[in-house]
Design goal:
Layout: E1 4-8, H1 15-23, E2 28-30, H2 36-40, E3 46-49, E4 54-55, E5 60-65, H3 68-79, E6 83-88, H4 94-100, E7 106-110, H5 113-121, E8 129-132, H6 137-148, E9 157-177, E10 185-192, E11 195-200, E12 215-220, E13 224-226, E14 232-234, E15 243-248, E16 253-275, E17 280-286, E18 292-294, E19 300-302, E20 311-316, E21 321-322, E22 325-326
Helix pairs in contact: 1-6, 5-6
């Protein structure tokens, strides 16, 4: 999952604030005085309240930090695995930094999008989410955008193409997301989770085919695709409603939701590349002009134009997965 946005609602009658929060992608609404039933008439949304889906004081605990004893109390709750919302009288990053090491379920009480951005990026890891305390409609929208773009960053590397080989008909998966992508964006896929290509979204048009910027023609059914949290799935397992990660050429990621995944038989290409440090990356992609990899400059390059020596962007890590989770083990994939 990505970072979470919770908006503090002072009254369940604040329809405009609630509606804006919903449209900004909130995970839940916080109602310290209750009123969940009223809020749920507007939309299907989780609430944190005395009468909520998550009970305030039980499932979520608010700790106002005024001194070291308060900080120690928050640390104790985090070690117990509790969801802790930290409030500070003078908002600083110091107590957040100290508490991040104590547990995963830390939320920062913030007043605007700038504070939210700081909270979710502190020490690179950041808090699990934020509780936004404002009635400013524009600030809610800005914070929603900050959270949406606060995906995982990966270190993409340059790799040189070493082989492009037609291999005939295979089953390939085309992923249509419920998001529009821009030039320089795509999904990470590969024959191995240890080496993945940044396959470019179909943002480009040509005389024969219109652009479909919501689509990544991802490759053969056996290949891995990167998901939130560093997880992977086989492309054959992807279905409507799933989350996948979309990355740009700088390695900045965000979550996209799958609208549909189509499996069709198409002529395919085996593409192999190698990084400067000798890591090998391979994938099987459809043999068509509209399928593109991504250059280090963020430009799409069609697979039918690829030749040995061309540079493309890849992601590499040590091999080893168990049900999509990263594990430490000795493994060789060919």
């Amino acid at each position: 999952m990505g970072k979470e946005l919770i908006v503090n609602i002072k009254s369940p009658d604040q329809k405009t604030v609630i509606t804006t929060a919903l449209e900004s992608g909130v995970t839940a609404l916080l109602l310290e005085k209750g009123g969940s039933k009223t809020v749920k008439k507007l939309a299907k949304i989780k609430t944190i309240a005395p009468d909520g889906d998550y009970k305030l004081g039980e499932d979520f605990v608010i700790v106002e930090i005024k001194n070291k004893a308060d900080e120690e109390e928050a640390a104790k709750l985090l070690k117990q695995g509790r969801n802790v919302i930290v409030k500070t009288t003078d908002w600083t990053i110091i107590p957040i930094e100290n508490l991040l090491a104590q547990g995963e379920n830390l939320y920062a009480w913030v007043r605007n999008s700038e504070e939210a951005k700081t909270a979710i990026t502190i020490l690179e890891k950041g808090t699990k989410g934020v509780v936004l305390d404002t009635e400013n409609i524009n600030e809610i929208k800005k914070t929603g955008e900050v959270i949406r773009l606060a995906g995982e960053k990966v270190n993409l590397k340059k790799a040189k193409i070493v082989r492009v080989k037609p291999i005939g008909m295979c089953d390939r998966v085309c992923i249509d997301t419920a998001s529009l992508m821009e030039r320089g964006e795509g999904a990470l896929v590969g024959n191995s989770s240890a080496g993945m290509f940044l396959v470019h979204a179909e943002t480009e048009s040509n005389p024969y085919v219109a652009a479909r910027p919501f689509r990544v023609n991802a490759g053969a059914v056996h290949m891995y695709v990167r998901l939130p949290g560093g997880k992977t799935k086989y492309l054959s397992e992807i279905e409507s409603g799933d989350e996948i990660m979309i990355y740009n050429y700088k390695g900045e990621g965000r979550i996209a939701y799958v609208g549909r995944a189509k499996v069709e038989r198409r002529p395919m290409l085996l593409i192999e590349a190698e990084t400067e440090d000798g890591k090998k990356v391979a994938g099987i992609l459809q043999n068509a002009e509209t399928i593109r990899l991504t250059t280090p400059e963020g430009k799409p390059i069609s697979v039918v134009e690829l030749k040995p020596g061309d540079e493309v962007l890849v992601y590499t890590e040590k091999p080893g997965r168990h049900f999509g989770m990263k594990v430490e083990e000795t493994i060789i994939e060919k």
